[in-house]
């Protein structure tokens, strides 16, 4: 069983959660307190994030940091309007 790189898993899971909320990358960046170009690079799997950044992202989506890098898509997530 081949494992995907954590950056690829994070990118896929972030994109899925963002689309679930109908957020743009700009809105996601605002919710996380990060720059929009940085979150875009994370979502493309181009950046290695720190644990602090991973936690910021997880809190914004209401999931754990572990869920963001899981091979399974996060099921439980905070939906805000």
Summary keywords:
single chain; 81 residues; mainly alpha; 434 Repressor (Amino-terminal Domain); 5 helices; globular
List the helices and strands and how they pair.
Blueprint (H helix, E strand, L loop, with lengths): L5 H15 L4 H8 L3 H8 L7 H11 L3 H4 L13
Helix pairs in contact: 2-3
- The CATH architecture designation is Orthogonal Bundle
Can you say what the CATH homologous superfamily is?
Answer: lambda repressor-like DNA-binding domains
What ranges have pLDDT less than 50 throughout 5 or more consecutive residues?
none
Sheet with the most strands, sense and barrel status: none
Helical region count?
5
The secondary-structure class comes to mainly alpha
Helix content: 55-70%
Distance linking N and C termini? 39 Å
Oligomer description:
single chain
CATH structural fold name: 434 Repressor (Amino-terminal Domain)
Give the count of structural domains: 1
Tally of extended strands?
0
What is the residue-mean pLDDT, rounded to a whole number? 89
The global form is: globular
- What is the helix/strand order? HHHHH
Radius of gyration: 11 Å
Q: Regarding CATH, which class?
A: Mainly Alpha
Strand content: under 5%
């Amino acid at each position: 069983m081949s494992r995907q790189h954590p950056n690829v898993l994070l990118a896929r899971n972030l994109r899925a959660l963002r689309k679930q909320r109908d957020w743009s990358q700009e809105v996601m960046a605002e919710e996380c307190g990060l720059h929009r170009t940085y979150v875009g690079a994370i979502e493309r799997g181009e950046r290695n994030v720190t644990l602090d950044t991973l936690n910021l992202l997880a809190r914004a989506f209401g999931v754990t940091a572990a869920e963001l890098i899981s091979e399974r898509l996060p099921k439980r997530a905070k939906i805000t309007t």
